[in-house]
Amino acid sequence: MSGYFDLHCHYVPGVDDGVRSLEDSLALLRALRGLGFETVVATPHMRPALWDNRAAPLRAAFEGVREAVETARAGGDSLPAIELSAEHFLDEVVYGRLLKGEGLPYRAGRSMLVEFAYESLPVNLPARFFDLRMKRLRPVVAHPERYEAFWKKPVAAAETMRRAGGVLLLDVAALVGKYGRKAMDCAQTLLEAGAYYAACTDSHAPSDVPVMGEALTRLRALTDEDEVDRLFRRGPREILEGRIFDDFD
After folding, report:
1. Domains and CATH numbers, the chain
2. CA of 121: how far to CAs of 7, 150, 161, 178, in Å?
3. 3-state SS, residue 114
4. Number of Cα atoms under 13 Å in the Cβ half of residue 159
């Protein structure tokens, strides 16, 4: 099956811990297309003190990728459609930028990808999520299975996040142990509970793609094709099109 959407990928070169060159960017996109991904969204980090990226420079860097993709397609290369968003580290600085409209939300401008420190979630997280939703922005939580706060009681943590207004995005590579046993067990528990709204690859380099192939195989073994379709097609499309905000419509 094909036509998948990848909502979380680091293929804009030289802006964070993702690919380092346009050649690697094209190689990563080409490999993801081979796995069935029709659309891949670039999500460079916005994380002060590590990768303090801002919207305008990221748009300029993304345009360089777009031009390279168009040239490669003209030469007969098979590549997915590409879009730009960002992975927003929800500290005080980035939170303030989001409230001022300085982030990079997904396509429809009504949802955006957020991440936190792995060791602990912000104590004021519900209030921050509420403020973002008042701006008509739905938080999409990157790789919740990798946060220690989810490990002991994954389903309860997921429900707390849902009540705060966030939706969860599975990093599919967690299912094959890429981030360790605890993250893998957490991901499987959340998957069984139906806690994820969508899934992604969070690929950073062409060398990540074989692991993604293994992870997709594992996902199919744990669920069925309808669930794979929901996580990689229906759910992501709803996020991109801003259709996860029904309670505010």
Report:
1. 4-248 (3.20.20.140)
2. 22, 10, 11, 22
3. strand
4. 6
